[in-house]
Structures
1.
Amino acid sequence: MSGFNNIVILTGAGISAESGIDTFRSAGGLWEQHNVEDVATPEGFARDPDLVLGFYDMRREALREREPNAAHNALALLDAEFAGELLIVTQNVDDLHERAGAKRVLHMHGELKSALCTSCEMRSPWDAPMSAKDGQRPPCPVCWARTLRPDVVWFGEMPYQMERIYRALREADLFVSIGTSGAVYPAAGFVRDARDLGAQTLELNLERSEGSHWFHESRQGRAGDLVPAWVEEVLGG
Ligand code: BJW
């Protein structure tokens, strides 16, 4: 697979699964362990902020132990060596693409290691617990209000940088989706958007996803096997 000049790659939880990070919808995944309405909606946060802050504190802490895998490393190599336009749009809130060395990365669902202040609306780098200690939550580094929340996109909220993503999709000649179930919009609709606009479309996923039939080609297997092989095709061709 070669001859492309403008590639948009969408990644989901499946690309980080081999690094030991739970996916959402697999058996034993995050949504079997936690009620999605409680931990991934603004209403859940309003009802029980301590529960939600604890959920994200736990995941931020666990991320320290995780390392990028062969799929993240292959995309970082592609980012470094592909001369054309490239954008990695990740739904993941982990930082494994960056830790593998990728630069052209956009986090459409936010980041675990970022805090959003609901008072001043500033986003700040964050690598500590956010839940209350000694009865007080930590202050915002910008306005000092104790009103931080995880800088992640919950159901009902607008994902980040949608204009930039749609611009990239309009210009893409290849759209590749890696390790995502295609269950969550607007990301699940990108394949149709890209295809309608003339791009070739390829899915790399452990199993067929909800949107597999929209892709020109769908390959099944582990990201750690499929992604390095595909990157070799692109760079070698
Ligand atoms: C492997 C593997 C291995 C495993 N190798 N593969 C219709 C149109 C538009 C919107 C809606 C609509 N209907 C409903 C909506 C609203 C809603 C929505 O989509 N709901 C659905 C339940 C239907 N969407 C929203 O509310 C979004 N906002 C929005 O729509 O705003 C309005 C808008 C309109 C139009 C344009 C633009 C905006 C916001 C969605 C926010 C999602 N947030 C979460 C939590 C983020 C923070 C956190 O991490 O806690 O994002 S939910 C969760 O799901 C997380 C993920 O990013 C997201 C997607 O999950 P993902 O990555 O696909 O994981 P899984 O587990 O589902 O799948 C993993 C896959 O990997 C599986 O297929 C495995 O087989 C595979 N796999 N191991 C390769 N080793």
2.
Amino acid sequence: MITEEQIQKRVSELAEEISKDYEGREVVLVGVLKGAFVFMADLMRKLKIPSRVDFLAVSSYGKFTESSGQVKILKDLDYPIENEDVLIVEDILDTGLTLSYIYSLLKKRNPRSLKTVVLLDKPEKRVVEFKADYVGFIVPPVFLVGYGLDAGERFRYLPYITELRENG
Ligand code: IMP
Ligand code: MG
């Protein structure tokens, strides 16, 4: 569905835009584990501004491909974010439950600024209103794997993004 070349080109464009918006500042990239780690690794190396990284782990899907609607913090940030310019990095915005939960959680810690970047956005699946500040690709409401996205922990290693169908 999205080739390695298309992903790399778009990540470069996002990095360009983010670098301009944060010019002269240092950004704290907060990756949402595990899905975001591949995207975050590429994005941070393309940014023209310095960054620090931290990670959050949340669980909302378990082994299944449908949202349970439940968000649970499995691992919190290692460092406080008060007065920091924080950019949440997520693989995909689907129902919006995960990001809206994380956004309000981090907002309470008084960062200097708080924004979100998602590689993929499935607007048709939204349950709660949420808009990411930076979006890589708008995608249809199908289940996708690769480039960090998994199905039961499999396929994260693919350098491209493809649809997962029931019988391959
Ligand atoms: P939301 O809370 O429904 O927006 O879910 C976001 C999370 O669901 C993402 O961080 C992914 O881990 C997972 N997710 C949503 N859609 C997909 C998909 O198509 N493939 C793999 N994971 C997905
Ligand atoms: Mg995820």
